[in-house]
Amino acid sequence: KYNPIINKIKMAHDPKLTAYVIELKTENRQVEKSNRNLFKNIIGELDDNLEDSYIFMEIAKKFIRKLDTPEMYSNDSTKKSMTAHQADIENENVNNNIHFHSLNFIIEGIVEGGRYGKRRKKRSIQDKQIESDVSEEDAITDNFYFLLYTPLSSDKSILLIQSYSDDSIDSVMKQFWEDFFKYPFLFKKPSIKRYIPENIIDGFKREATISSLTYATEMLASTLLQSPTESNEREFKVTVKIEPIGEGLTYNDSNTIQNIGNAILNSLRLNSFNKKKGTLKNNTTQKTSPFSLSEQDFQIKPAIMLGNYIEIQHNESDFDRIKTYCFGILENIKSEIYLINAIQER
To answer: What tens-digit pLDDT sequence spans the chain (346 residues)?
Structure first.
């Protein structure tokens, strides 16, 4: 039976995917910068004859022991937490939530996480008289899929995190791997940067138009008024937003965009705006994505809305399709990330 309230909730809970590249950071140049070296130190076995599959599985066990604990792993700054429920890492016949692919160096599966730290009430939408308290120590959780690809010969790993349009555990998941991918005196906290596959960017460009441009800077009143006085030394944030009337500008219409930007700068007699951003709207899905505006290029980072690529039924069956999609997009990212690295190293 169709329920407009439930349907609206489902739309707000659309799954999306974010990709990150984790890059190791060593304490000094003498340290071998590889996942293999880091992992061998973490498991405490430095034998040169260790098989990579053995090293990886020992790391997988370390991962489970750190995450599958009575206490949820938490990020106090963002008030997000997560945990794992793993019945038996050694037994493949057990229906585990997280799986390890030792030959492919992949850890993937479902973790549970959500927000905590706010006193709330929950009430039935069918009967408002049914209510209960949610304390600051309670986390409102959901299931999230993730995939980590960590080749031992490289210093870079690929992390895929599924979230929802109204909720994510990206902050606490990234914090977990920042903690995991470091080792005293050898490896510092790694960098974790968002990565958008080229085919996702190209697809968004083809179906998107520019719905707005925003220029922003902070300036002294005396600069704006050209009358330096003591009372005019207060700083102001100046924002100029441009929205085309009717159809939006195409993403590739760079000349028009640059001309508009230059006209704004000249007319306001400001030397520069330090923040130049635009918003793209996908005309098919109506989803928007920000991008940075510069004289060289536009850095666009669209969200990967999974409903554009797989069937979403808003039930547990979605995770099978999300997993299949993640394994596919992983291959695209691997060809881009590790090819670039190989060229740079040569």
So the answer is: 444 444 444 545 789 999 999 999 999 999 999 999 999 999 999 999 999 999 999 999 999 999 988 899 999 989 999 999 876 666 655 558 899 999 999 999 999 998 888 888 878 888 888 888 888 888 888 999 999 999 999 999 999 999 998 889 999 999 999 999 999 999 999 999 999 898 888 877 777 777 777 777 776 666 556 555 555 566 777 777 777 776 666 666 655 655 666 666 565 544 456 676 777 776 666 767 666 655 445 566 777 889 888 999 999 999 999 999 999 999 999 999 997 554 343 3
Q: Which two tokens stand for residue 8?
A: 């609206």
- Please tell me whether the overall predicted TM-score, pTM, comes out greater than 0.85 for this model: no
Instruction: Please tell me whether residue 222 adopts helix, strand or coil conformation.
Output: helix
132, containing H or E segment: strand 131-134
209: tokens are 């138009």
Residue pair 139/81 in contact (Cβ under 8 Å)? The answer is yes
Distance CA 132, CA 122 (A): 6
Are 97 and 111 a contacting pair, CB within 8 Å?
Answer: yes
**Would you say 187 and 181 are in contact if contact means Cβ atoms under 8 Å apart?**
yes
Contact between 149 and 326 under an 8 Å Cβ cutoff? The reply is no
* Identity at 254, one-letter amino acid code: S
Place of tokens 């057990």: 94
d(CA 116, CA 74): 9
Helix axes 35-43, 52-67, angle to 10 degrees: 60
